[in-house]
Each structure stands twice: as C-alpha cells, then as structure tokens.
C-alpha cells in the first residue's frame, strides 16, 4: 500500500507549488486578466451603447408613429367636420327648397324669381343661375313654376358663397326643372334624372347620400356629390338637392397632410373604393363614362389588402409595408360621418431621419468612451501587477505560519474519531481553539454519548421485539390449530378452505364439523377489526358457534344466543358478521341464517347465483329479540357448489378506488366450471387481479363446499 501524505505536508507542498507557479506566471496571468477585463468592459460599453441606441431608435420610431397617427386622426376629424358641414348645407338646402316649392305664391322673397334664371351665359358669371327644363309644361303653369324655381337662386348663391370649396350647387325638381349655380353649361345630352346622384337620393328616402368619384358633366374634373331628396307632406319626392366638390379640393383641404410634404393622402369608402387621392386623372374619358375605381381590397399587394380591411372595419393605426421593394408607413383613421377612412402613405426614411442622426451622434460618443476606458486600463496595468505579486508573497509567508496551527487540531480530531470507531466513547482529547474546530470537538463528544445511549436502546428494543414476535407466532399457531382439518372420508362432500391474516393473527374465521352421519354444521365470519383484539373476539365467537352448533340448535336461534352473549362481554365495541348453516348430506337441504350479509356464490347447473338473503344485524352490537335473525333454506342438487367469503373483501377498494362488490364476485365466476380447477385457487386469482398489492393488507377467509350427494 502506498504511503499516505499528511495534511501538513500537503499544505506545504501546495504553498511551495503556488509560490513557484506565481513567480513564473504572475505577469502573464495579470496581463491576461486585466486584458480580459478591459475587453469585457469595452464590450459591455459597446453593448450598453448599442442597447441604448436601439432603445432610443425604438422610442423615436414609436413617437414618430404616434405623431403620424395623431396627424392622420386630426385630418380625419377635420374631414369629418368638413363633411358634417356639407351635410348640414345640403340639409338646409333640402329644408328651404321644400318650403319654397311647397309654399303659396308670394310667401317668400317676391314674385320676380325669373330674373335670376338664364339659359345663356350671363355677365358677370356669378350674377345668375342656369335653368334647364325637362318638362312639357306650357302656358301659365310653366310661368308659375319657373317663377317659383327662380326664388331658389339666392339660397344657392348663399350656399355656394358660404362654402367656397364647392364646385357647384343645384336642385332638380321631380317635374323636370333643373337649376344650378354658378352658371355652367353641361356637355352632350345631359339629363339629371339619369344621373346617379338623383337616382340614389330618391331611393334613400330622405337620407343624405354620397356619390363618386365620377367625371363632371360641366367640366374636365373628377368630383364627389352629396345629394338629398326633398319630400312633400305625403312623403313623395318633389326635388333633389346636390352639392359637387372636386377630388382635388378634398385632397387639398380635407385630407391633405401639410406637415409631411412627402406624404400621400387618400380616401376610401366603406367598400374599399378610392374616393380621392393625389393626381387622380381623367385620362381622356368622357363625362358619361364611369371611372374605373381603384379598390384596395382587391389590390395585388397582400399588405394593402390587409390595411384596407382594417380601414373598412373602422379601425385606426400605423403599419409598415413594403410595396415594390420600397419600405413605407401607412397611417389610417376612420371618418365617422360617412363610414369612410382617410389614409396617409409616408416613406420610411421620413420617419427614420432623426434616428439616423441620433445613431451618428451616439456612435461618436461610444468611440470616445472606448478610447478613455482603454487608456485607463493601460495606465493601471503595472500597478495591478505589482500589487498581485506582493499579495502572493504575503500569502506564501502566512501559509507557512498557519499550516501547523491548522493541521494540529485536525490530527487530534482524527485520533478521537478512530477511538469512537473502535467503541471507545470516552476520550481525554479536548480542543480549545475557540473556532469551528472546537465546536466540532464538542459535537464529537455529544455524538459519542448519543451513540452510546442509542446502542443500549437498540439492544433493549431488539430483545423486546424478539419476545413479541415469539408471542405472536404462538398466537398464530394457536389460531391455526382452531381451524378444522380437511374432510377426506365423506364422499357426499368436498370442502376446501383458505385463511390468510393481514398481520400475525386474524379476525376472520371458519369452521365445519359433522354432527352425525347425516348433518354437517359449518360457519364463516369476520370480526370488524384487526390484530390481537379481533383474534381474541374471533376465538370467543368461534367457540360459541361450534359449541351451540354441535347441539343442533336452529341457526336463527343460535345467532340470537351468540349475539346476546357477546353484548354482555363485548368491551371493544367490535361487531361480528357471520353465516351459519346445517346441511343434510342425504337430501341436500341447506338451512342457514345470516348475521348482516356474508357474500355467497351459489353455482348451480354451471351458473353463478348470488345470495338473495336479506341483510340483518351484525352480532355484538346490542341485545335483540327473537325474529331479528331469519331462517332460510335452499335445496342443493348433486354437483352444486357454495363459495363463501368474508364481507370485508367485497367492500374494500382497490388501488384505482373501485369496489369489488357482489356483482364483480358473480361476474368472476360466470364462466367457471366446477371440477375444472380448484375453486379456492380460482377465487384467490380473481381477488389478486382486482386488488393487486392491496390484497396483502386485508384478512382473507374463503370456504368452498361442493355437494356431490349420496349414491344410492
């Protein structure tokens, strides 16, 4: 065996080794550590700067997005106010037009309305309204209607002058009189009745409608129209009022984003159609041709379709998209007045311009800090090396001084531990170091005393346990000797039995005996308990049953006598479940009585039948009168078999929480053939399959009686 090195020698060797290694590698290690620290510091500085830069970028971008969204929401509110004013104007026109057209002659302004109407271009242009007649009226009726229509000119002029963003205002009566201001001449075969603004206003039942965009019949411009029907007191349409506003005017004053010069605004309706945007052109189309509307919901770009869906749904937000390889931001907000939505498309570089400037500034600052940190580490490198070498030398010196002080108490504790392992719990070695070693020494002393006491206690406990086990073994042998032997010389019967205690002794029991050549008495039962108390009560009950049964007392009277006897002497409040019977081996008649309910399987003609006897009181609970325990009987046929189990088996739960029960017991014997195998063995297999490992924690008693009958 190799010679072991002492702790003191190991400490000295380690100190010597550290000294040699330290002087050889101090410079290298110090330089490496400081260099690593410098690199880590620089990297941390870079990471912190990068994180700060990224956080700043995110904050600025978020702020820019919020500003853009706020701007678009403001534009949507402006557009909402403007459109609300236009709808107020059209409502006023509708109201006043109805009064003028339905009022009595002379009820408004005067009777010289015709002077404000002309077919030819007036001079100056804003002095008169244009009249167009699509009616076949003539004579006095024609003159009166023309006079009445002329009264509307001041109202049209007022509305147009009050809202200079309008392109034109007009009214068309249901009987064919069309007045418009300012004077403009339509092109081609213009008929207001065929125009969409007239038709939809009639169908809208008095509600304001918006039409467009479409090409104006009065000039090369794209317009939107706000129109509303005028009804009489019967609810019939008598006229339609309309306001035209150009797409250019809407783009400029309603949805134009003036704070972002590179932004492009657009307006869509609730179906996704683009109502207004910059640079909407006619492209050579005539006024009577429909403009092909751009529908963002049908766009080829998936991101535009997604945004259009949110705009149509009335949502607001800012999203980044990539259209034709160009990164853009789209902000949108709803216009509640018309269920339209306004959007602004801005180039990504507009929002990120301030971020780029910030990036450049922070990079310069980071580089400046990197240089300062590097100079600081270079300057202090020599100082760190000197301090490191000095500390190592001092550690070496103090190591030699304290090595002896450290190892001496440890060696003394080692000697003390060896004596304890040899059984010597009394030692004269005591440390007074004033530190943890002294506390450990006192712990050794206490441990020695505890081990000594524990050894004595274990010795006494082992002796007591051996004595108890011997007594339990004697009790188990006594209980086993009380069970009857197997019948071998009675051809009319075949009896099998089984008893297993969960502990050393059991509260389950069975017994059988021939009273004479003709009658068999047997019983089986269970004391509600375990261990020695249950076993003692079981011995008492079994003795009473066997003695009274030998006297051939009827089973119901036998149970009554036993019950009342147990009540007098039962101090444990334990009850007993039992089944007792007399079998006439000549006739096969079985007379029995059941205290509570002992599970029974009756196999007759290959079929398993359960016990049909009613429940009664268990023995030992309280004194009862005659009639509590019932007498019953059945007639056995040759080949019939009776299997009894104690009632604790069928009520217990298995590991899954299921209960064995009478039903499961009968199902287990459904296909059992008498004589094919040992019925007791089969029953145990069923119990083990159901209960698993829990069967070992229960008392089990089984009694099987196969009746073969007496051969003539």
Q: What's the quick description here?
A:
The protein has 712 residues and is α+β, with helices and mostly antiparallel strands. Helices cover 46% and strands 20% of the residues. It has 13 helices and 22 strands.
Taking strands numbered 1, 2, ... along the chain, how are they ordered across the largest sheet?
Answer: 1-2-4-3-7-6-5
**Averaged pLDDT, please?**
77
Q: In CATH's first tier, which class of the domain at 483-707 applies? A: Alpha Beta
Distance between the termini: 90 Å
pLDDT below 50 for ≥5 consecutive residues: which ranges?
104-111
Q: Could you give the count of β-strands?
A: 22
Helicity level, as a percent range?
A: 40-55%
Structural class: alpha+beta
The biggest beta sheet is recorded as:
7 strands, mixed
CATH architecture of the domain at 483-707: 4-Layer Sandwich
CATH topology-level fold name of the domain at 483-707: Phosphatase 2c, domain 1
Q: What would CATH call the homologous superfamily of the domain at 483-707? A: PPM-type phosphatase domain
List the helices and strands and how they pair.
Elements: H1 7-102, E1 117-118, E2 129-133, H2 139-150, H3 153-162, E3 168-173, E4 177-181, H4 196-203, E5 209-215, E6 222-231, E7 237-246, H5 247-254, E8 264-268, E9 274-277, H6 302-312, E10 317-323, E11 326-335, E12 340-347, H7 348-421, H8 436-482, E13 493-500, E14 508-514, E15 519-527, H9 531-550, H10 555-569, E16 576-584, E17 589-595, E18 600-604, E19 607-610, E20 632-635, E21 641-645, H11 647-651, H12 661-668, H13 679-691, E22 700-707
Parallel strand pairs: 1-2
Antiparallel strand pairs: 2-4, 3-4, 3-7, 5-6, 6-7, 8-9, 8-12, 10-11, 11-12, 13-22, 14-15, 15-16, 16-17, 17-20, 18-19, 18-21, 21-22
Helix pairs in contact: 1-7, 7-8, 9-10
